[in-house]
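Figure 3 (text version): structure tokens given as input.
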């Protein structure tokens, strides 16, 4: 028996993000989930270290690595379309649910429970879902910053909208990251190397 599940996971590298925008640096779904996984680990670790939280950081990273996997079937639907109105959001959720069902159908029965949990984590892991959502938005902000730094003003409005979204998330871990780590994303390599911390 041959299963295509992991081959489909690897196809994330072919899914282009920011389809409505002109990008200086093309971002794939693979790039995005890697960034979100790193940021998820950072936020969970910050929460555990400074805010007396008890996140399972490693589990959160696994969920982050698979959080957009349905997009191997749906593609990256642009945010203005995905969230156009309640009906569109509901319809997209149904399409996403069908994509998850299709992905799980590509696994042997013995592996389905493990990946069913991962692909439906947001239903049972509310705290980790919130952290991953924050990391997801933070990754979008960093993408906007990188594009702006490259002289691409196409991302100016997206950056402002993403900052508004982030400020509404009420997440001390996120606030800590933005104050202490985000400024370095606007630095050159030489400037980063000159830092003492």
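Below: residues designed for each position.
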């Amino acid at each position: 028996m041959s299963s295509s599940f992991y081959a489909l996971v690897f196809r994330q590298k072919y899914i282009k993000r920011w389809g409505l925008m002109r990008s200086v640096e093309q971002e794939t779904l693979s790039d995005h989930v890697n960034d979100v996984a790193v940021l998820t680990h950072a936020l969970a670790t910050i929460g555990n270290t400074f805010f007396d939280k008890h996140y399972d950081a490693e589990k959160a990273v696994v969920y982050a690595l698979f959080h957009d996997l349905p997009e191997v079937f749906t593609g990256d639907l642009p945010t203005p379309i995905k969230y156009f109105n309640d009906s569109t959001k509901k319809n997209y959720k149904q399409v996403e649910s069908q994509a998850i069902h299709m992905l799980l159908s590509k696994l042997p029965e013995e592996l389905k429970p493990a990946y069913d949990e991962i692909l439906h984590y947001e239903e049972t892991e509310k705290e980790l879902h919130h952290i991953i959502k924050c990391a997801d938005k933070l990754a979008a902000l960093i993408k906007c910053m990188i594009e702006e730094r490259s002289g691409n003003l196409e991302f100016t409005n997206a950056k402002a909208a993403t900052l508004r979204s982030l400020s509404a998330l009420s997440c001390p871990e996120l606030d800590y990251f933005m104050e202490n780590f985000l400024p370095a994303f606007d630095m050159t390599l030489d400037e980063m190397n000159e830092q003492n911390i």
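The chain has a mean pLDDT of 93.
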